[in-house]
Design a protein that fits this description.
The longest helix is centred in the middle third of the chain and has 18 residues. This protein is α/β, with parallel strands linked by helices. A six-stranded mixed sheet has the order 1-2-10-7-8-9, with helices on both faces. Strands 5-4-3-6 form a four-stranded parallel sheet, with helices on both faces. The chain contains 14 helices and ten strands.
Amino acid sequence: MAAAALPVTFDDVRAAAARLRGVAHRTPVLTSRTLNERVGAEVFIKCENFQRIGAFKIRGAYNAAAQLSPDQLAKGIAAYSSGNHAQATALAARELGTSAVILMPEDAPRSKREATAGYGAEIVTYDRYTQDRTALGEALAEDRGLALIPPYDHPHVIAGQGTAALELLDETGPLDALVVPVGGGGLIAGSAITAKALHHGIRVVGVEPEAGDDTKRSLESGTRVTVPVPRTIADGQALPTPGELTFEINRRLVDAIALVSDAQIVSAMRFAFERLKIVLEPSGATGLAALLAGHVEDLPPRVGIIASGGNIDTRRFTELLSG
């Protein structure tokens, strides 16, 4: 019996790429002889820290918002996010001439809250450790008649996120493995759809913080697992359970999940700053951390990493690297 079709296709990713042309940046791909020698492979880093709003999230948010009806856009957009999707949705709303209301945790990084407000969004806060952001976000959108764009569990969001891998593979040609940070699973789902469509034998490896290994546990058990809300410096990956759509895709296409500690994330941020001359936020550095720590098993000759974002303020960056 044939397997059921995936909820997002490679054609969806290509359509998203066309929609994003002139909106999202085509971010650079960085290489480093020092990094190659350190890990024993040729590594290509897709630098989404240079993306608009400082992270890949504009790809999915804009792709979803751009497909709303004129009536939906006129009423406005809602989202819930710890920061990067918040900024992305706020910017997408501004680009499309509508308004945004964003639900953000009270302890979201100050720089991300200020940036979200700077794009013109209204911010509503909640306690991430005691309140359910999905339920709150859905209620907020319903009460105000807004179109809700979730951060990962939406086919248009997933397709948009897949465009980062599409650009990477277009520039590098075939790769043996693709290493991608995992939060709710949207980026790796879109990346896996793209990578497997272009290069059937490529390995797709996700990376989670040790404190938030919900996707690893879920893939191992074959069903979505919920863990306590993670306490990790990787705030963009501090989620208790994978999304429904993302899990459906990732359980079929993702080959492995690696885990990294907060200390290993900081070490990768330091390496990126000192040797690669780029700034990565903790969540954006987890793929690099997995390579540097030797946590990607059977590392093949040519490897791509998506460095998913660089949104971190000077005080926090200095605090982490000097700790």
